[in-house]
Amino acid sequence: MMKLDSTDREILRHLQEDAHLTTKELSGRLNLSPTPVYERVRRLEKEGVIKGYVALVNREKVEKDLMVFCSIRLKEHAQEAGAKFVREIVQLDEVQECYNISGDYDFMLKIIVHDMREYQGFLMNKLASLENIGSTHSIFVMSEIKAETKLKV
User: What's the pTM?
Assistant: First the structure.
């Protein structure tokens, strides 16, 4: 595991706020010359501390108004059955996040779709076609209170 010093952490904080910062802008904020800042960012990327850069899209502006958390219980818990479910679920565009969880359910999905009709189609035509699903439980998000992408480092 890579050891992060205070400069690495400061770089991560700035890039989480604005991934568009150039090396020059970042070096100005850190009071360092551009070359060491560039080398540190590349090292953080190479080591996998920085996984990638994305544009965060306002889902409502692109007509993806419905967010659903769907709990999944599998029929069979054998390793291959679970692995097959994972291979299939990651292929579904509507599934934004998937977590293997403990408790009454095996997986928790975060699903983003346009509306209830689209969710019903997703549930009936895509999710129900996966053979190892024993049961599902859907929770519909009424309003999003906090959705952060930044980690405290």
Answer: 0.89
